Amino acid sequence: xxxxxxxxxxxxxxxxxxxxxxxxxxxxxxxxxxxxxxxxxxxxxxxxxxxxxxxxxxxxxxxxxxxxxxxxxxxxxxxxxxxxxxxxxxxxxxxxxxxxxxxxxxxxxxxxxxxxxxxxxxxxxxxxxxxxxxxxxxxxxxxxxxxxxxxxxxxxxxxxxxxxxxxxxxxxxxxxxxxxxxxxxxxxxxxxxxxxxxxxxxxxxxxxxxxxxxxxxxxxxxxxxxxxxxxxxxxxxxxxxxxxxxxxxxxxxxxxxxxxxxxxxxxxxxxxxxxxxxxxxxxxxxxxxxxxxxxxxxxxxxxxxxxxxxxxxxxxxxxxxxxxxxxxxxxxxxxxxxxx
Length: 340
Known about the structure:
The protein is α/β, with parallel strands linked by helices. The chain has a domain at 3-186 and 222-249 and 289-306: Rossmann fold, CATH 3.40.50.720. Helices cover 39% and strands 15% of the residues. It contains twelve helices and 14 strands. Helix 3 runs parallel beside helix 5 (96-117). The longest helix has 22 residues, at 96-117.
C-alpha cells in the first residue's frame, strides 16, 4: 500500500485529493494547523471514518515541524502533495510578508527533508494561474513569462524557483499551475461559493442579498477540482518531474456565474440581489486568466471542458440548496457523471 502525505488536508484540494487517493487504495497522512476545525468531525463527515487516513499537526512555516513528519518511523512517503498555503489573493495585500513566507518557504523545507531522509519520494507543488497576472493576450502555457500582480503570486513564484533549485539536485518535484477550480468543498469566502451558496440561501428565504466586490467583469478559466486533483496525481506517475498547466481553455465572466446561479433558482435578474462593496476591491485586479493545457493533454491525457460550465455552477447550487435544507446530500461523483 502506497502512502501519500498531503500538506493541507482541510482545504478544498486536500479533501478532494485525499478522497481520490483513498479510492485508489492509498494510505493517506494529512496535515492540519491549529485553527483547523475538529479533526474527528473532518474524519467522520468527509472521510467516512476511513481506517486508512491519519492526521498530523504541522506548521508548514516551521522547519522543525515539517522535519518531524519525515523523522516519524511510522511513515514513509511515496508521494507528497504540498497544497497548504495562504490561498486568498485579496488577503495577501493586507499581509504581504506573512503570505510570502507561507507560500514560499515550505517547499524548501519539504524538498530538503526529502533529499536528506526519503530521496525516492515524489513531490507535487501547487502553484497558481495568478502567476501570469492576466497580462497575456493568448491562453497561457508553461513557457509564458510570470507577471505577478499580488503578494500571493510573488510567494508562489519563489516556491517555483525553490522547486527548480531542488530539481537540479535530483529531487523529484512536479509543479501544477492549475487555473481556477472548484467543487462543493470550496470555502465560503471564494467568489464562486458566495454566488452559488448565496443564491441558494436567497431561494430558501434565509437572506436577501449577497455582497460582492465592485468589479464583476473579470473572466476566469474554471474546472472542477476533482479532475484537477486527478491531474496532480498523474503528474507523480510520470518518470520525470515537470511543470503542467491544468485548464479548460475557456474563460467565463463573473456576471456569467451570477446569471447561471440565479437562473437555476428562477430568481430573475441577479442585479436585484447583489450589493457591490468597495472593501472587496484589490489594488491590482487581474482581468483575464485563460490557460493552454496542450502539454497536459498530450502527456497526462488531461481532458479539458469535461464538465460544461453551466453544469458546474448548477451542481454547486444544487449541493448548497440541499445541504442548507439539512437533507442527506452526497458529494457529486463527477467521474461517473461525466465519463471520458
